[in-house]
Amino acid sequence: MPQTPAMSYSRRAITLIETVISLSIMSVLLLGLSGAVMVSSKAIPTATQTGIEDQRVIDAFNQFRSDLRQAILIKYTSNASERKLLLNIKDSGAKGNPDEIHYRYIVASKSFARQLKGSAEEILIDNLASFSIQFVQENNDTTTAKIVVVANDTLQHFFELHIALPDKPELK
User: Fold this and answer.
1) pTM for this structure?
2) CB neighbours (10 Å) of residue 126?
3) Are 168 and 143 in contact (CB under 8 A)?
């Protein structure tokens, strides 16, 4: 039986029902994606989640690491009341570059301080439960420093640094 023009079915457009169904499926998918984005954004720690004290410890020991890596001579003394480090820094040629930096961990006040030659001592961190430093040597050259710190007021509490010393400073 031949088809008449009235009976022929040609599909050239999307029906209203198909449009509504596809829009509802897309909205459900977008809601799922937005939920995943919200959950993943909470996985990135903010300044308050890492803790202000944690950041102070991290900043102080980043400075300490930088100074140690520039040292050409390290004088280290330790006793029951304090641990002292005197760092002689290589001359970089930059104006105002310090040639001597003193670091001190004071057991009684549980503080870690830094002093540039000719200026006042600055307390970098207070309330450190413990501070220890070990140096690895080859002959008279110091190749690595290992620092372990316990800071009570932080979320992390325990910090461990391994610092390679590229100039292999002499240790006294």
Assistant:
1) 0.67
2) 15
3) yes
What span, in angstroms and rounded, lies between the C-alpha atoms of 44 and 47? 10
Main-chain phi, psi angles of 80, to 5 degrees: -65, -30
Of 147, 144, 99, 89, the closest CA to residue 119 belongs to: 99
pLDDT values of the chain reduced to their tens digit, one per residue, 172 residues? 555 555 566 667 778 898 999 999 999 999 988 888 888 877 666 656 567 888 889 999 999 999 999 899 999 999 999 999 999 988 777 676 778 999 999 999 999 999 998 889 999 998 899 999 999 988 878 889 999 999 888 888 899 999 988 888 888 8
State residue 76 phi and psi, 5-degree precision: -120, 130
What residue segments make up the domains of the chain, in order of their start? Answer: 51-171
Pairing of strands 158-164, 170-171: unpaired
3-state SS assignment for residue 89: strand
Residues in Cβ contact with 23 at an 8 Å cutoff, skipping those fewer than 6 apart: none
**Length of the chain in terms of residues written:** 172
Other Cβ atoms less than 10 A from the Cβ of 75: the count is 16
